Amino acid sequence: MKCMENLSRTRLPNDVIMDYIKVYKSIGINQHNHEVLESDYDVIVRQTVRNDIYYFAKMFQIKVTDARFKSLIFKDVKPKNKDEKLIINLRNAFTKIHDESSTFELLVTEILDLIKFLYGDVLAQSKLSWRRLNQAERSSSLLTSKNASTRESIDQLVQLFNKELRKSEYELSYIILNFYIDFINIKPFHEKNEEIGIILLFTLLVGNGFEVFEYISFFERLYKRRKEFEQAVVEANFNWELGYSQILPLHKLILDIAMRSYQQLSYLVRDYQFDQHLNKSDNVENTINKLGDVFSKDDIRNIHPYISDSTINRTLKRLRDDKQIRPMGKGRSAKWIKLVKTKNKKIHFEQLDLDI
Question: In Å, how far are 23, 182, 232 from 129, measured between CA atoms?
């Protein structure tokens, strides 16, 4: 609780204040974004959840091949091992987080429920409980010495967090990040503290105004900047036990990720509004014309996550019947090749690197 107890020690520089202004300008149009995308909200969120699972798995080296990942996510096949069970649990957890983010309240019981939900059939039952403090921890200043287990320490941390939220004296992401650093330093569980901590960080951001991460994958953005993130966490952990945690580098990074995500969302909203005035099949055909000579259905879906599979399939069938394209293989992962030369313009996909 060293960070939460010492929020006032950090003096926020002017560049962070300017970042707040930029981020909250975007947060201010959350409702507008939702109204524009509402008719395809579920489709877009499902895509975001898939990205979140995939990049979370990469961050924490969950060993599931891309082929098995697709099968687990799309076909509901039965998991063969603990890593695959975890993928299914992550899908259910992230879906639940998105569905209930607006009503989520941070409670000690919610944190314990989270580790049981994710790892109940992955870890031994003895690992799914609060870690007891050893004698050195109880006698040191790292944690409140009267507490016999980390359960009491986390209870105090959650109370401090909710108290600061109600006071509204500090910016929300600043409070959330201080909570996150305290959590991972307390190490409340026997294992998986980093994983639980970062999921709590994500949940608290989404539930406290950063709704951009419903449409743009938080974990993809974080994974692509993981070295910066890891270094910022190291700096934040330095001198934590003395109450002098260096939180600003981590804070700046998360604000920058939020700003870039909102920028990407603005492009999505703009394109979506433009597409509303077009025939969706014609729009898919126009995208195909801009792709390379060999492409997949996933390439189209990455650009148009809100256009249904049936529309994409109908367009591919029409172009095939018109002898403009032909399939190379069968199944979901089949590639298509153009039979009519077009002016290709390679499109850069920012949101999704995995063909899912």
Answer: 37, 19, 29
